[in-house]
Amino acid sequence: MSEQTVINRITEICQLISHYNHQYYVLDEPSVPDAEYDRLMRELITLETQHPELKTIDSPSQKVGGVALKSFSQVTHQLPMLSLDNVFSEQEWLAFVKRLGDRLTRGGVKSTLDFAICAEPKLDGLAVSIRYEKGVFVQAATRGDGMVGENITENVRTIKSIPLRLQGQSFPDVLEVRGEVFMPKASFEALNKQAIKKGDKAFANPRNAAAGSLRQLDSKITAKRNLAFYAYGIGFVGAMPKTDDLAENAVASIDESWLASSHYQRLCQIKALGLPMCPEVRLLKNAKEVEAFYQDILQQRESLSYEIDGTVFKVDDIALQEKLGFVARAPRWATAYKFPAQEELTILESVDFQVGRTGAITPVARLKPIFVGGVTVSNATLHNQDEIDRLGIQINDTVIIRRAGDVIPQIVSVVIERRPENAAVIVFPSECPVCQSAVLKAEGEAVLRCTGGLYCQAQRKEAIKHFASRKALDVDGLGDKLVEQLVDEGLIKTPADLFKLTELDVSTMERMGQKSATNLIKGLDAARATTLAKFIYALGIREVGETTAANLAQYFLNFAAIKSASAEQLQQVPDVGVIVAKNIVNFFAEEHNVEVVKELEGIMSWPDIERKSDDELPLKDQTFVLTGTLSKMGRNEAKAALQALGAKVSGSVSAKTNYLVAGEKAGSKLVKAQDLGVSVLTEDEMIALLG
Asked: Which residues make Cβ contacts (< 8 Å) with residue 264, sequence separation at least 6?
């Protein structure tokens, strides 16, 4: 490839990626799949690696992060970055408007309420200034003290929604765009989930996460944080500075011919250049429409993809803004209309422990009642021991409680300096508070669980539903709602009790006629005869799915051997690792489970399993994955047929997969298999293989 061809291709890719970024982040109209975008980016990075002299500062590849900095330098703002004053009620807003009206009347403007208002959600992030010279991104800085901020250029460069080159041709030599860098809610949740999984401290809120990400000395870390940006205004606009007196030169250099006379229109100008504008920004006819906008955004708050803590209202007419001027650190022509507080202080009075449907034991904080987020809060979840350790919380501590909309109240942090002498460590129970079975915390999990799955009242419904489910015993006529009804009426307490039901018991229940009752009893009678694999699966042992159950049955041949097997012996079974082996051992170590299982063994039966020779297992050590719709045999039938010949059937494609069976409408699994070079079979080819 000639140098000119490479130059042309790099230019083409850069233009395409910039175009796609504009469509995705500014217009919210993505036009190509992520895979195509990724392919272009990989090609660009490859070409720039091969030809480093052709890499430019506005290349989209610069968004992946560069060499780590030793420290942040300082940036002096050419125009001050001011903060906003706040109002907290309609009365305070009207008082603000009156002050505007009084000042404008003195300035020769008669009307006090008829001027247009630019209305915006108040993003809960970090204010930044972004400088473009000749349309190219050259610098980004924090607000700092309003006059001097920190140089965060390399970190802001990684934010995908910020273009490294402006769109179009019509813009000033120097354009400073001001806006908010924030972390979307989904990104924040993913980041904290990852942090907790790694044992790191989670961020308290998206704002802290955004601020922490922007202050990373290594921009590669920032690049992975999926930050976003919305513009909310313009700073310095004009020619390149020609003197050392930046502030004086800034005023002299403003290009009035380019700037719109409306604040809202200036935001539209910025958007046209490729920078994203918050989609909820509105131009209101007058100050009377403000309250309606405030209430509308307040109602939308929880459904928005980003955190906000209020609204911002700005006089739209730039000429009026200039008449109104500034106070020391804030403009007179704008204010933040804040939402009611969502965080308050209260006392953690005690901790109770609740048992969930899957046996998870959750600590629940009992709080001194406090009014927050529009309601009185007296309880909050503490999730697990790891979360308690992270917070460093104790009983009788003063805590910060947060409630956002309908979200369950959370304890955000502890006010350590207010810890009283009678503070007490939170002690987790050594046995289930519901059924007194042993409790254990599985390796790699933060949750403490009750081990009495077949016995515990808190887990009763879910255990019986699983026992009767289609992939387990497949009891005809026994759906989830009926299970709940039987438990609620006290007719069954364990899976074994199902087989003690009579037609009379069932027929007297609400919405159950004689025919339905007869069919249910027939279904239960039929379910008494099963297979060892299905019985093992039906017990609901944690992490023991269909495949593992089948492998256990085939390896040990009988149930007694499985019950008495050690963890080491269990790990000899294909697909059984350390965690699954411990789960099985713990299940049969709990006396309550053993009692129920013994009762079931006296009720149910299954045929003996004979160990097959290698000749009878031609697909031994072969891993298959099924995807798409199979037209000649059901998915479960195909799976059973493959397993009968010794094959392992997995749910996901990996490098260890030997064959992928692709039916109609095969999707991502087929693509992945092709990428990994896995052999792909049609349904007919699989049937031929089965013989």
From this structure: 116, 118, 281, 283, 316
